[in-house]
Every structure is written in structure tokens, then in C-alpha cells.
Amino acid sequence: MVTFEEISPADFFYRNRDIAGFTNPVRAIFSALRELVENALDATDLSGVPSEVYIRLSHDNDTELGDDVYRLRIGDNGCGIPARHIPSAFGQVLFGSKYKLKQARGTFGLGGTMAILYGQITTHKPVNIVSSTGTSRIYKYALMIDIQRNRPLILDRTIQINKEQWHGTFIEFSLEGDYSRAMPKILEYLKQTALVTPYANITFVDPKGRLYKFTRVTTKTPPPPKETLPHPYGVDVETMQRLQRITDCQTMPDFMQKHFHRVGETISLSFLDFAGFIRTSDPKNLKGEDISRLVKAIKKNKKKGKNGFSHNLSVKEMQHFIRNTQSGNLVDFMKTHFKGVEKSVILRLLHAAGFIRTKAPRKLRSDEIVKLVRMMKKFDGFLPPDASCLSPLGEDLLKVGILKELKPEYIVVSQRKPSTYSGHPFIVETAIAYGGDIPAKDDILIYRFANRIPLLYDEASDICVKVIRSMNWRRYKVSPSMPIVILVHICSTKVPYKTVGKEFIADRPEVKKEVLNGLREVARQLQHFLTKKEYVARERRRLDVFSKYLPKIAKFSTNLAGKEKEPNIKVLLRSARKFED
Amino acid sequence: MVTFEEISPADFFYRNRDIAGFTNPVRAIFSALRELVENALDATDLSGVPSEVYIRLSHDNDTELGDDVYRLRIGDNGCGIPARHIPSAFGQVLFGSKYKLKQARGTFGLGGTMAILYGQITTHKPVNIVSSTGTSRIYKYALMIDIQRNRPLILDRTIQINKEQWHGTFIEFSLEGDYSRAMPKILEYLKQTALVTPYANITFVDPKGRLYKFTRVTTKTPPPPKETLPHPYGVDVETMQRLQRITDCQTMPDFMQKHFHRVGETISLSFLDFAGFIRTSDPKNLKGEDISRLVKAIKKNKKKGKNGFSHNLSVKEMQHFIRNTQSGNLVDFMKTHFKGVEKSVILRLLHAAGFIRTKAPRKLRSDEIVKLVRMMKKFDGFLPPDASCLSPLGEDLLKVGILKELKPEYIVVSQRKPSTYSGHPFIVETAIAYGGDIPAKDDILIYRFANRIPLLYDEASDICVKVIRSMNWRRYKVSPSMPIVILVHICSTKVPYKTVGKEFIADRPEVKKEVLNGLREVARQLQHFLTKKEYVARERRRLDVFSKYLPKIAKFSTNLAGKEKEPNIKVLLRSARKFED
Q: Is B405 within 8 Å of B459 (Cβ atoms)?
């Protein structure tokens, strides 16, 4: 009857390749090239030298296989892959270096292996990999994938001496495809990649031997993206459990500060107090030495004066206070007796003086973990994520890239301030280019980028396109037939892609808002430009009429006045032209 | 520097839940409900009794957790799950019964577990499962998922006596969500599910205690979908290797017939000959007994007469032929000497008489497997996939479903003939409903279905919507403000979804063509209806004018003629109204 089975992740993606962007021979060759170019660029970003990416696509000479089989070779001067990881990095699905909270082009740890897997199932040939991290050795592998077990099969392995300390990776394999139909998308992809990576040299040799070179126009690279800690707002029970299992922190304040993004001592204490994870003694149970320690701590504290801590507080007074208090714990007691002092100051003071006790993180029960996570979402005292871990392109590089690839008459770019969704920081960059070499089409051209990769498919479902379509462009003097390119770049430690093939971005309200604001900004500037342009055109038309009739009028008036010498109309015309400057 | 790690499939989908349709609390509660309803309906389709699905969504009473936590309970009278598979079926990603070539609602073996996983990470509570396959026992489990290891954790297991031989499954778990915002989509989903499953009773109790009942209008169920073999056109090297590894066939013709869809003896031989996998002896090497066996086989064959096989062929004649032939193998020899006989007849004859030798499938080398697969794609003699394994709804059930849920004035439905893409059979059903209870909106309503599930998200990227938008509806007298619902249902052993969340269907040219033709068919019929309707409306207006003035004209004419009795105009009006019938 019904039979059950377990399949490996490699098997899953083998059976469902539509999901990863390998729908047909056209899409497959595009996706394979793209995934490997993105891995190459990620690797060069880490190596700190300006990117060199070499791509060669050629017909496979194996005549047995037929015309639609290609060999794809992609090389980079990136950081290379440590020898022991090479087999798994290319021969195992869901194995990778991309599972960190960090801005990267690849995000699923899947694309490169998927390309190789596709090559294998269509041609059954091994993939060849050459890589070095710049050590004294270069490693060469020939691999295949055991799809059912999701494990690499090493067919061959050789080691060479690396005299020149070369670092980088070369990958070469065969795959079925349809280059002639994929060509427009591939070239568009490379052009847009060059636009958004103006510090990279990209060379592409196509199957007909045509050479496409995208040369860098700057060696200035954006700062490399940094790894970051999870933000408390984005943490769920599973993440909390994993942290709790591996932490070596003994107290909750330490745990909070060590494992979460932008949580310092004050915030950790305020949060733990809010969440009910802090215990302090009943003041009545304090011993003599405790009380003098507390008084000493108060005296040392800088918060003094009226309603604050008193300079002259004596142990005796404190004992008196304690005897008469009705508070059952130290925090409340302090709050009642030093009204002008903020709670956070009290908490820090008590913590520093050793009056605050928390459970050891590793001893939290599972219901306490759930509660901790819930309270994290409710607490409003956490700082917003810091976007310094992000690496947007920046307005200058964006401008340079657009100028280089589109050669427009006018550009305006804008970088929004960092924002966040579900605890993930993100930055939106927008640009509009007008005129020059941009062709006037039926509709406005839209370039979409995420973490510096162009998105070329499923445009209609993308949040950026939805926002652009929802805007009233006539307000900005834009009409559909104008030669305009609108560009949106979203970078984040986690781009909310809707598909494994990285085709389009999900409808997150926070992202939507930023995209809209970014677009409005550039649209307004474009409007000024277009208004001025319109004015100039109008004035020029007026002046043309002027310069046509003025000589005749001058002559006629001279005759009429009975004079002989006509006035110098050149001076007049010159002054009228001044507005053009 | 760069660190590498392996993650489990559960971990992958935990980290990338946007991909599986669990983007935010609104989508999550929709997706969870939907995935489990679809599993329930799949299970009831297998049990052979009309479906009963019970859904209850209620606030979780656990006040610790807050208002946005719900308990979801879904039950069905389906085939149940064998006890030993229950933990993995619900507690392990990529474990399931859905990996067969068979039409099913669920296709990734992922949805149900993903819903449970989402519940676990947002509430950290176990899932409770009750199931029986109709045996003497009912099994109850409390489970959680070890996400990092992708394994179920069994917290509790009890067994009950099943006196009434109940079969089915109940699942209950807690999850975070936003029901009030998800409600419209959930109700729309249930309504469309009821439309496309008119043989199911679906009961939904929502968190406010409101009861929604979708009652079956028929007990006639479509035939249950059947499992099928892979079609040669859709086979790749990996599939071929797997078959080769497990087969017990000793010869290639047997192998082809046993493991592939619609491959019989004749086709298997023609193909293997085409692909170069058949060897026959050199006629010159035949021994005497071989020759008489061959002659006997020829005489037994029915293909006789002119240019065919001769009745009177003697062994002597044959020996003479063989002596003088230049052909190096038996097939060529036979082809040359019996010109009127088709090659396939010769192959079958030689095969039956034991003159054809092939390798044992298990001994094929890997390059031979690649060649076999390539030749399969090139051979044009395979039969198209048989769609009898599919279970479309059928025109009657579709009509009943639409009438029940939409109550239109007019319906037209159409079922296209089976077609195929990449070796997968599929059938497109289309319908248009007009008027009645259908509201007139700004735009035409589109209902999309695949394997009997409604698709409600990412409409703009769906192939059906693209086709509808590309059609010139004015030609069919349709204007956007008309009260119209257009419905497309695609069923296949493999629906080419673009996303794991089953939101929309990829752009396969074969599918596109069928959808277009199906829509044209129903659009043309709608056009006839609308034309007739227009005519009726026009005639009625004319008649209204008639019946208003006719009495006056009658009276006036009577006076004018000097008569007293007016003619009976009722008879006249009645005859004019006849066209309305």
C-alpha cells in the first residue's frame, strides 16, 4: 500500500530541480554559471584583493554526447578552499561556509553543488576542482556526487607545489544546456554583475569563442562583510537552545552579552529584570558585611545628590532603612529609597557588588527558555541591529558602476539608513539613470540586486517591482517611454528570498517601506532634473525663434528709423543664452 | 577564517522558512493549516471512502505564551499511518510516502513536518498524533523534532484498542500565528478546496468558535491516482543507475519493459536497435540447427506474401541466401532479403527465436548508461505517457463543485486531452463561471488549482495567470468589470512548482500551450452565451417598447377604421416573446 522512505537532501534537490532554478536547459545553463560566479565573487571578497573572475563556456568535445553539452570552467583569485573541505564543499548538498550571519551572495550553501549535480545527471562526468588557500600546495580533485547518500565520491586527487603562493579556485565540469537561448540572459547577468561590482575584472569566453571583458574601473573595494551575532528580536527557541547547549557562560548577564547582538551590561540586566530572570536577596536577610559592601558600592557610584545616592550614607542609616522596609527584594528596596535613581543604575550597581543571582544558562529548563525567548520579543529596550556588519556598495561605487555599464546622461543614487526586519539588519540603495546610452523602451527598465547579485527572473513577484509599479511616476514627470533605468539594491545578513533559486524577494513590510522611501528620494531628484531639462528645452526653442527673426527685425527697424547702422544683435543674443550655463 | 559545516535538511528549512511558505505569522498559520489539510485529503483519497476533514483552530490556553499562539487540530478518516512510520512521518524532514510517480497534493514530503517544525520553534511544545490504519490498535504519540539531527524525539507513546476499526489520523499542536489577518485567505482556501473536492465534508471551527461547514454534494469520487513508471523521455543518468542497481532483469529488452512507462516488446527492441545495444551473429557463423530454427520462425510468422516472408522458404534456400549475403549481422541480412517486412517485425522474430543478445543490465558500464539515456531522448518511437495514472476532476465533478460554491448563472467546463512535459503526463481542466452570485469586481477572478489544491499566492508569476493576461478577452466579449471566474486545474504526476511552498507553476512551454488551448475552448463557449444574452436583452428592450405602444396603436387604428372591437394584441405579444424560450 503506502510505502515510506527517507531521501537525502541531494536526492530532494535532484528530484525537485525546478525549485533551485534548474527548470530546463536554458535556465540550467544560466543558473549554473550564475551560482558559480557568485561563489567566485564571495571568495574574492574574502581574500581582500580585487576580484578576477574567469568564465569559459565551450562545446564539450565528447561527440558521443551531442551538441547540447557544454563544458563550463570558472576560476577566481579568491581565498581558496582548505583541502580537507574541497570534496564536501562541491560534492555534498547543504554543506558550506554560508550558514553564518553575514552578508554573502550565496545564502543557501546549495547553488554550486546544485550546478555540479545538474552536470552530473545530464552528462555523468566528474567535476574537476583546483584550489589553494595560498599555502605551499595546490590541490586537484576529480569528484562525483553519490546523490542517494549525499556524499562526495573522490575519483582522483593530486597535489602540486604552489611556488607562487597562488590562491583561488578553478572548477570545470560538463552539463547539458541551451546556450544560444540562454545567451541574452547570461550577458545581461554579467553586465549587471559588472555594474554592481565595479572593482572586479570579469572575463567570459563563450562557446563561439567570443570574448566579453568587463574591466574594473576602480580598485576600491567595499569593506568586507563581517559576521554578526543574532539580534534578540530575531531569536527563537531553537536558536536559544543551541546557544544554551554550547555556552560556557556561568551567569545570565554574561550569556546575554556574549551571544547576542548589541547587548551590553545595562541592557542585559534591564532585560533579565523585565523577563523575571533576576533574583536578589530579601534585604532583611542581609548580613552586616553585605550591608557595608552595599553602602560602599553606593558611595562609589557617581549618581548622587538630591533624591539620588547620598555621599554621606552610613551603614547605620542603611540598617535603619532595611529594618523599616516592606520590599521583599533588594531592587525594589533600592528603588523605594533612592527615588531619583534609574532602575538600570540600581541593577548595574547591585550586579557589580555581587547582589544579583541568576541561574546558570546551561541549567535553564525548557519552559524557562521559551519564556526567555517570548520576553525578548516583548522587551522594548534592545538597541536596533547595527548595520556595520553590512557592506552596501555605497553611493560612489554605485555611480561608478552605472556610469561604466550604462553611460547615462544623468544619475542619481541614494543609500538609505540601515533598518531591520525580524532582527536582521538591511540597507536599501536606490538609483535612477536617465538618457545617454540607455534605450527608450516601452516600459521603464528595472535592475534588481540583492547582496550584490542581479536578480533577473520572476520580476512580477518581486517586492521592488511591486513598489515601483505602485508609484505614481507621472508625479515625477516620468513617462513610460523615457530612457530610464531604475535600480534597487538590498543588502542584508539575510535576504528574504522566496525561492532557493534566488529569483525574487519576499513581501516583508519593513523592506517594502525602505524600498519605497529610497525610490521616492531618487525620483524627486530626477523630477528636478527633468523639470530643468524641460525648461531648458523650452527656452532653447524660444531663443531659436528669437535668433531667426531678430536680424530681420533689426534691419526693418533700422530702415524704419531712417538710420544706416544696425544695432549689434549678437550681444543681445549672447545675454539671452546665459541661462543655459 | 572561513568555517565549513554540514547542516541537516530540517536545519536548512528551519533557517530558510520563507522558502517553504512560513514567512510571517500570517503566512505561517495559513501554510500550516493548508499543508495538513492537503495531507488529510491525500490520505482519504487512498482510503476509498468519501473524505471527512475536521479542522479546529483555537487560542492556546497557556497564558504564558501570549495571545498570538494557537492550537491547530486536524483530523481525517484517511488510510492512517503504520505505527512504525508515525515518528518519522511527522518528526523528520524529507521522510514520506510522497516520492512516487503519482498524482498527489503533497509533493515534497515536507509540508506537514514543516508545519510541526514551525510550531515547535515558536512555542516549543510537542505535537500529538493519533492514527490507525484500521487494525485493532490506535497509536498515540507525543513528538518533538531534533532539528540539528533531523530525527524525531518520542516523548510519549500509548496504544488503545480500536474496537470500531476506525482508520484515520488526528494531529494537534501549538503554533504562533496571526489568525485575524490570515482569516480571509484561510476561508478562501477552504472554499476553493471545497469547490475542487465536492465529494469531501470539510468542517472548520475558528478561534472565535465560528463554524464553517463545507458539505459534500456528491459521494462520487474521482478514481484514485495510480503509481506509474518513469517515461523514457524523462529519465536521466541518475535514475537509470538506480534502476540498473536494483533490477533483476537479465536482458535489456526485459529491463526496458519492466522499468519504463509504456515500453512493450516491439518498442524495447526497436529502441535498443536504434541505440546500438543489440548484437546478433554474423549470418555466416550460423550453424545448421540455427538456420533451421530461423526458417521455422519465419514460416510461423504471419507476415507473408509478396516481398514478405515466404511460406515455402526452405532451409536450403536460406543457406544459399546466407552464403551470398554481404551483411555482417542477422538484422541487416533479414532486412535485405525480406524487403517488405518492417524492421520491428524482424527484430521481434529474431528476439523470439533467441538470436538477439544484449548485455545484462547490471553489467552496463557507466559510459553505456550515459549513452542509453541520451539515445532515449533521441528515439522518436516511444509512446506518449498514458494519463490513466492521473485523476483529473472530470467535467461533471468540476461543474458540481463550481455550482455549489459559486452559484453562477452560467458555467462552461472543459477537460483537455492528456499531454506531457519532460516525460510527465498532465491534464489541464478549465472552466468559466458567469453571473449569479459571482460579484463583479475590477478585474476577472482567477482560481488556480494543481492536483486539486488551490494556489492563492504569487499569482503574478504563475503560468496560468500569464496566459490569461496574454489573451485578448474583448474578442470573447469579456470586459474586466463582468462577474466572471476563470478556473484552471492542472494535474500531473509531477506539478512543476517553482517554490517549495507550492505557490505557483513554472513556465513549461508544453503546459503553457495546453492551458491556452483549454482557456480558448471555454472562452469561445462563453462568447456564444454572451452573444445570445446580448441579443435577448436587446429583443426584450424592443418588446418592452412594443407592449407599451401596441395597445395605443390598436386603439387608435380601431378608431381610425371606424370599428368598435379592438384586435387581441395579447396573442401578438405572446408570439413575439417566443424567442425567449
A: no
Strand partners, B486: B432, B446
Q: Is residue B388 part of a domain?
A: no
> Comparing C-alpha atoms, which of B209, B210, B39 is closest to residue B129?
B39
The owner of cell 523605594 is A336
Residue A242: list chain B partners with CB under 8 A: 148
**Burial category of A526 from C-beta neighbours within 10 Å (exposed 0-12, middle 13-18, buried 19 and up):** buried
pLDDT at residue A284, as a whole number: 86
Tell me how crowded residue B399 is: count the other CB atoms within 10 A of its CB.
Answer: 17
Residues 237-256 of A with CB under 8 A from B: 237-238, 242
Which domain-ending residue is among A183, A214, A245? Answer: A214
In this structure, is residue A221 part of a structural domain? no
* Same domain assignment for residues B263 and B137: no
Domain residues for B561? Answer: 534-575
Query: pTM to 2 decimals?
Result: 0.86
Compute the average pLDDT of residues A3-29. 88
Contact A57, A189 (CB under 8 A): no
Regarding whether B562 and B462 lie in a shared domain, the answer is no
Quote the CA–CA distance of A29 and A6 in Å, as a whole number.
Answer: 30
Taking an 8 Å cut-off on Cβ atoms, the answer to whether B79 and A508 are in contact is no
Shared-domain flag, residues B35 and B172: yes
Q: Is B224 among the domain residues?
A: no
Residue with cell 485578448: B472
Query: Taking a contact as any Cβ pair under 8 Å apart, which residues of chain B between 19 and 48 contact chain A?
Result: 19, 23-24, 46
Q: In the block, which residue shows the cell 463583479? A: B440
Together in a domain, A459 and A333: no
A-chain CB neighbours of B89 within 8 Å are 4
Q: How many helices, marked H, and strands, marked E, lie in chain B?
A: 17, 18
Query: ipTM score of the complex?
Result: 0.85
Q: For residue range A52-82, what is the model confidence (pLDDT) as tens digits? A: 999 999 999 876 667 789 999 999 999 999 9
Pairwise CA distance, residues B395 & B8, whole Å: 44
- Tell me how far apart the alpha carbons of residues B380 and A166 are, in angstroms, rounded to a whole number: 51
Could you read off the pLDDT of B289-333 as tens digits, one per residue?
Answer: 888 898 888 888 765 555 567 767 888 888 888 888 888 889 888
Q: Is A186 on the interface with B (CB under 8 A)?
A: no
DSSP assignment letter at B234? G
Domain for residue A268, yes or no? yes
> Which percentage of chain B shows pLDDT scores above 70?
96
Residue ranges of B 347-366 with Cβ closer than 8 A to chain A: 366
Q: Are A424 and A511 in contact (CB under 8 A)?
A: no
Q: Which residues pair with B152 in a beta bridge?
A: B145
Which segments in chain B show pLDDT lower than 50? Answer: 581
Q: Which of A493, A512, A530 is the last residue of a domain?
A: A530
CA distance B357 to B284: 17
Cβ atoms of residues A256 and A400 within 8 Å = no
| H helix or E strand, kind and range, residue B488 | strand B484-492
Q: Which residue of A has its CA nearest to B457?
A: A461
Tell me whether B215 touches chain A (CB under 8 Å): no
DSSP state of B224: P
Same domain, B280 and B157: no
Q: What is the pLDDT of residues B56-77, one digit of tens each?
A: 999 988 766 677 899 999 999 9
Convert the pLDDT of each residue in B100-152 to its tens digit. Answer: 778 888 777 788 999 999 999 888 899 999 999 999 999 999 999 999 999 99
| A96: CATH | 3.30.565.10
Tell me what the mean pLDDT of segment A269-281 comes to.
93
Same domain membership, residue B272 and residue B193:
no
